[in-house]
Amino acid sequence: MARKKIALIGGGQIGGVLAQLAALRELGDVVMFDIVEGLPQGKMLDIAEVGSVDGFDCCLKGTNSYEDIQGADVVIVTAGLPRKPGMSRDDLIEVNSKIMTSVAEGIKAHAPNSFVIVISNPLDAMVTLCQKITGFPYNRVIGQAGVLDSARFKTFIAWELGVSVKDVNAMTLGGHGDDMVPLVRYASVNGIPVMELLEKKYKDKAKAKEVMDAMVKRTRGAGGEVVALLKTGSAFYSPASSAICMAESILKDQKRVLPTCAYLNGEFGVKGFYVGVPCVLGENGVEAILEFELDAEEQAMMDKSVAAVKELVGSMK
Ligand code: APR
């Protein structure tokens, strides 16, 4: 069987971590494309030279030519500007739409059978645009947001309860914006509802709710929190890890259930838009969307988040 091939479009902060993680996990051969001459070549050479130290053996190539992504099984897109302090993800739409247009054309022409995972922001709009331009089936074009948003939520819960993050389960739905929907009702520590643990900890329902509300708020603003600290760009380790998790599930047909920005055709009451929902990711990309009943409060939050996604997508020229 031929080795798998992963193409990274964008060799900036996230692109570099993606390449290193893909190599460390030996997911396949990796090619990094960027428009800046020397940048992808330099990064890939740098990573390739520690194969003997880290114990990986795969071909790593940096390029400024789309021809090199030929035969890619999975393409991960990070091309585009990151935010600076004070900016929302949506502020990037004009400049990143132009970049995404050229990127999607390159993917369509040179990796027509690939699965595409978009990371560039504003995520929900960039995935929509990428699918439109490539014309790939919806199951082959997805966005990374929910794995990271959920991971952030899990982290805050673990810190609050003083338990291992490995035993925390939690998920966010909706768009990758300030209106995302962290699902409090389903947050658990090995199945034990987090709210119950908070109520035990504080012996006070109101205080437990206040603490949870603060974690939900921090999750929604977590990307901005990192931007404010870094000042020169946005989070890059965590989006890279999250997208690699999705790529691995597809490449190895793991059928992981991961919150994914996927095209909805009526699920959760949404038709014709890309929104974050739990998906089974396997060798066919999105193999299933796991729909479940939302309560009235969750549905209202979902509706608000979807409305924001619709407005964002509608604002694209
Ligand atoms: N084609 C390919 N690469 C491009 C193009 C293009 N048309 N235009 C810009 N790039 C490259 C840049 O040269 C740069 O190397 O995209 C890379 C982006 O890297 P960074 O600026 O370091 O940004 P990064 O932190 O990696 O974030 C990338 O992901 O999470 C989102 O909001 C974030 O939109 C941003 C994207």
UniProtKB/TrEMBL annotation:
Catalytic activity: (S)-malate + NAD(+) = oxaloacetate + NADH + H(+)
Catalytic residues identified in the record: 176
Lactate/malate dehydrogenase C-terminal domain span: 148-311
Keywords associated with the record: NAD, Oxidoreductase, Tricarboxylic acid cycle
Segments passing through the bilayer: none
InterPro entries documented for this protein: L-lactate/malate_DH, Lactate/malate_DH_C, Lactate/malate_DH_N, Malate_DH_type3
EC number: 1.1.1.37
Enzyme class: oxidoreductase
Positions with a binding annotation for NAD(+): 10-15, 34, 96, 119-121
Residue stretches making up the Lactate/malate dehydrogenase N-terminal domain: 5-143
Pfam annotation, one family: Ldh_1_N
GO molecular function, one term: L-malate dehydrogenase (NAD+) activity
Binding site for substrate: 83, 89, 121, 152
Top-rank lineage group of the source organism: Bacteria
Entries under NCBIfam families matching the protein: MalateDH_bact, PRK06223.1
Record family assignment: Belongs to the LDH/MDH superfamily. MDH type 3 family.
Its job: Catalyzes the reversible oxidation of malate to oxaloacetate.
Name assigned to this protein: Malate dehydrogenase
